[in-house]
Write a structure and sequence with these properties.
Layout: H1 4-12, H2 17-23, H3 37-42, H4 49-75, H5 82-110, H6 114-143, H7 149-162, H8 164-170, H9 181-216, H10 226-248, H11 255-258, H12 263-272, H13 275-286, H14 288-304, H15 308-336, H16 339-361, H17 367-395, H18 401-412, H19 414-421, H20 423-432, H21 437-451, H22 456-459, H23 468-472
Helix pairs in contact: 1-14, 2-20, 4-5, 4-7, 4-8, 4-9, 5-9, 5-18, 6-7, 6-15, 6-17, 10-19, 13-18, 14-16, 14-19, 14-21, 15-17, 16-17, 16-21, 17-18, 20-21
């Protein structure tokens, strides 16, 4: 709702392609979830945590945030003020990401081994991708109705997003919790209201400062931001490479390793050493095609001449069936095959999904052909996603499941999302150079996904360093 659907909504309101690309940077927020993930490992949500526990309490707060943000996006769906649109899109991204952090930590705690993670990751992605399909196709089908429009679409999805909350409330008490259900619910709702208001005010203030700073240095819709984005992509690797030698020498009593804020992240580099850089390079490229296609595939399809209803139908049962099959096969592969083989097959099918958009651009407008391209994309991304989730989960130290998975999964999408935000500018630059902009863009994104396979000979040998107490023994 803050990526593909929003890009079509902005396109319908005649927002330029470059600005639509800038909105993809809202998706950067999940990349930085490691900044607040330790808080979810350490603290309970006031009220909710007293009955439902840490993980479910954060999920309930996140659901309230998601519903609130979706409702606000629905009530401002005319996009007359893009700053307001961006504010609520960022809030939706924040609460969606917080929900993912809590749910991922819960999943890793429930299933710490490869054999257990395969089916659980598949089940998790079945629900996740089913929700994406339902929201994406459902919103487009509703938005295409004159009596509903974009406001009706966002409000309908907000109503659907509220439905899990009563199910969570009905769950039994978490062990070792003593509060009564009604008391915990009332206290949690009061605390959640205060947290949501404070988060909205803080986000608006930070956004106002950032937009003012960008305007002050001359960044606009006409700015070629690609060189700056590529430079930013290199910074994390340079910083980590510089810090790595010192991290490897840290004793267990060091403040950095014991810190609740940075300890989980220091632990990852301490355990894997130099090969951690190769691991992070691999994960940051592996899902490149999926992320780059996410923001611009729908504007391209719309530009080819397909209606919102046709796109919605393709994104409904066609995408859902293809995604379910792909996720199921990916989960089976991840549980039973060697990791390198499963990762290779997943990357190949994900790249084929991107190449499918190149093929579609050269075909006559035919809804059946749109179904084929959509099915290939969703099947490949579902398969690669399931394999990838299991792989990341097994890299995590069970002592820090929420924080380390948030760091790895967030970093995995840093480079793709940075480039995705410049995607509109890249397409327009290719068009001006006499190339078919969308064609070459999706061709390059598929090739970049395949480039991750070059790291497999290195990362397949990665083994974590023994903990201090194990090494001493």
């Amino acid at each position: 709702m803050f990526s593909t659907v929003l890009s079509l909504r902005l396109q319908a309101h005649e927002v330029g392609l470059v600005v639509i690309g800038f909105f993809a940077w809202v998706q950067l927020l999940p990349t930085f979830k490691f900044l607040w993930a330790p808080m979810l490992d350490r603290f309970d949500v006031p009220g909710f945590g007293r009955f439902w526990g840490k993980r479910r309490g954060w999920i309930m707060l996140s659901q309230l945030g998601i519903v609130t943000a979706l409702t606000a996006m629905g009530l401002t769906a005319d996009d007359d003020r893009l700053g307001i649109t961006a504010l609520f899109a960022v809030l939706l991204a924040f609460w969606t990401t917080t929900l993912e952090v809590a749910a991922d930590a819960w999943r890793i705690e429930l299933a710490p081994t490869q054999e257990e993670q395969g089916p659980l990751a598949a089940a998790n992605l079945w629900g996740y991708r089913s929700a994406m399909v339902a929201a994406g196709s459902g919103a487009l089908l509703i938005a295409d109705q004159p009596d509903w429009g974009w406001t009706g679409a966002y409000l309908a999805i907000a109503a659907a997003a509220f439905l899990p909350l009563p199910l969570l409330v009905a769950l039994p008490r978490e062990p070792n919790r003593t509060a009564r259900r009604s008391t915990a619910l009332v206290q949690g709702l009061i605390a959640s209201t205060a947290i949501l208001l404070a988060t909205t005010a803080l986000t608006a203030s930070v956004g106002w400062l950032l937009l003012g700073a960008a305007s002050g240095i001359g960044i606009s819709a006409k700015t070629n931001v690609t060189p700056y984005v590529l430079a930013l992509c290199m910074l994390p690797f340079l910083i980590m490479a510089a810090a790595l030698p010192k991290i490897r020498e840290l004793p267990p009593t060091s403040r950095a390793r014991r810190s609740a804020a940075i300890g989980p992240y220091v632990d990852f580099f301490w355990r894997y050493g130099t090969i951690a850089l190769a691991l992070l390079a691999f994960v940051s490229i592996y899902r490149m095609g999926d992320v780059l296609a996410l923001n611009l595939s729908k504007p391209m399809i719309k530009q080819l001449g397909y209606s919102l209803t046709e796109i919605g139908r393709a994104d409904s049962y066609v995408a859902l069936v293809a995604s379910i099959v792909g996720v199921g096969l990916g989960g089976l592969m991840a549980a039973r095959w060697p990791q390198a083989r499963a990762l290779t097959i997943g990357a190949l099918f994900a790249a084929l999904g991107n190449f499918g958009f190149v093929w579609l651009a050269h075909q006559p407008v035919d809804e059946a052909l749109l179904y084929i391209a959509t099915a290939a994309d969703q099947f490949g991304n579902g398969m690669a996603g399931a394999v990838f989730v299991v792989y990341l989960s097994l890299l995590v130290n069970p002592r820090y499941p929420g924080a380390q998975y948030a760091f790895l999964s967030g970093f995995a999408f840093l480079l793709p999302r940075l480039l995705s935000g410049a995607g509109g500018a890249i397409v327009e630059s290719l068009d001006r150079a006499g190339h078919a902009g969308f064609d070459l863009f999706f061709l390059l994104s598929g090739v970049l996904s395949l480039a991750a396979l070059l790291f497999l000979p290195i990362i397949s040998r990665a083994r974590p360093r023994a903990r201090d107490d194990e090494a001493a023994a």
